[in-house]
Design a protein that fits this description.
The chain folds into 2 domains: 11-62 and 212-372, Beta-lactamase (3-Layer(aba) Sandwich), CATH 3.40.710.10; 69-194, Beta-lactamase. It contains 11 helices and 15 strands. It has helices at residues 11-18, 64-77, 118-123, 136-143, 157-165, 181-194, 198-210, 261-269, 279-285, 292-298, 365-372; strands at residues 24-31, 34-44, 49-50, 57-58, 98-99, 109-110, 215-216, 229-232, 235-238, 258-259, 306-308, 313-315, 328-332, 336-341, 346-352. The strands form 4 sheets. Strands 3-2-1-15-14-13-12-11 form an 8-stranded antiparallel sheet, with helices on both faces. A 3-stranded antiparallel sheet has the order 4-10-7. Helix 2 packs parallel to helix 6. The two termini are 22 Å apart.
């Protein structure tokens, strides 16, 4: 840790940086009206560049709550409705087939029994995406280069749709839970429904009105961007998520945004104390939406005591690690976590550059929550 740099609390989080488990991190915490922003460690191990509160990070799946906010803005604007079928804007997906059994062969399918709705995309109950176990469908998504990952598919949106349309859904809409790909589909739908680029929807609907510096699908020119590292048996290995010098071919709110910890804290707080949507719309985003069967289908994606709202997990009982019932948030595969706790009037954002290794998350998550609730 650089001399004179503020330390994080508790000591365990500092220790993870000091021993190299986590190369670097930035934390933004709010308790009431008090905001604390600290950073530690390195944004790039090769150059020794420090991680600061201004370091820009690809936040991967922390892009998803922004998708929910933009969707509710478009619902209020009358561009779409939650219970409208997605084929209104995405006719390519009107006749998609459905697996007879979620873990079954790709050639054993049946027709849709009901249409896929916008609501299904928001809650991950559309049938697009991956289950908690490896399946023939998840392998096919990977082979088609449209599988979930810490960055969006490197394909134009029309090609993403074409490849998804050629594969079946995992289950009938509303009858299960599958991760991630619903948000890719939702991203394309939002742009078509609004008649605007998704970058404009984020810029004009979220970044500018909230007054945040960085929230975009590519880093600002000359920005200090964190290098993401993958924890492997031989040590931390830099991850190449594609060029950072311009817009990617597919703007997606599944995993496409770059931001900083203090900027994302302001975005997260928009779901607690909204200014760009009505309070009822914001509350709907973090209201549990799943049946018990859907929660069970989510498996490791949702820890015990959690359900799912619109693109965020929601605590349905008090979490021993601190978040109270009604808390909500999500994590990002590039090493990020965001939690809002309206009952405790707290919110926190952790950005690390250690990529998540699986459903157990990051070794930094537990000490971060301890810091948030110290």
């Amino acid at each position: 840790m650089a001399p004179g740099r503020p330390t994080l609390s508790p000591a365990a989080l500092d220790g993870l940086v000091a021993d190299g488990t986590v190369p670097g991190c930035s934390v933004a915490l709010r308790h009431g009206n008090d905001i604390t922003v600290v950073a530690a460690g390195l944004a790039d191990l090769g150059t020794g560049r420090p991680f600061s509160s201004d370091t820009v990070h690809r936040v991967s799946s922390l892009s998803k709550p922004v998708a929910a906010l933009v969707t509710m803005q478009q619902v209020e604007a009358g561009a779409l409705a939650l219970d409208e079928r997605i084929s209104t804007w995405l006719p390519e997906l009107a006749d998609v087939r459905v697996l007879t059994e979620p873990h079954g062969r790709l050639d054993e399918t049946q027709p849709l029994r009901r249409p896929v709705l916008v609501r299904h995309l928001l809650t991950m109950t559309s049938g697009f995406g991956v289950l908690r176990e490896e399946t023939p469908l998840s392998e096919a998504l990977d082979e088609a280069a449209v599988a979930p990952g810490p960055a969006p598919p490197a394909l134009p949106p029309d090609e993403v749709l074409a490849r998804l349309a050629a594969l079946p859904l995992a289950f009938q809409p509303g009858e299960g839970w599958a991760y991630h790909t619903s948000t890719d589909v939702l991203s394309i739908l939002l742009a078509r429904a609004a008649g605007q680029g998704l970058d404009d929807l984020v810029e004009l609907g979220v970044r500018a009105p909230l007054g945040v510096e960085v929230l975009a699908f590519s880093p600002p020119h000359g920005a200090d961007v964190a290098t993401v590292y993958d924890p492997r048996p031989g040590g931390l290995t830099p991850v190449d998520h594609g060029a950072l010098d311009g817009p990617p071919p597919f703007l997606s709110l599944s995993a496409g945004l770059f931001t900083t910890a203090p900027d994302y804290l302001r975005v997260l707080d928009e779901l607690v104390r909204p200014t760009t949507v009505e309070p009822a719309s914001a509350e709907l985003i973090h209201t549990p939406q799943l049946t018990d069967d859907q929660v069970r289908a989510a498996g490791d994606f949702l820890p015990p005591g959690y359900s799912y709202g619109f693109q965020v997990s929601v605590a349905v009982r008090d979490d021993p690690q601190g978040p109270r019932r009604g808390s909500f948030g999500w994590s990002g595969g590039s090493g990020c976590l965001a939690v809002a706790d309206p009952a405790a009037d707290r919110a926190g954002v952790l950005l690390t550059n250690r990529q998540l290794g699986g459903p157990d998350g990051s070794p930094a998550f537990r000490p971060f929550l301890a810091a948030m609730y110290r």
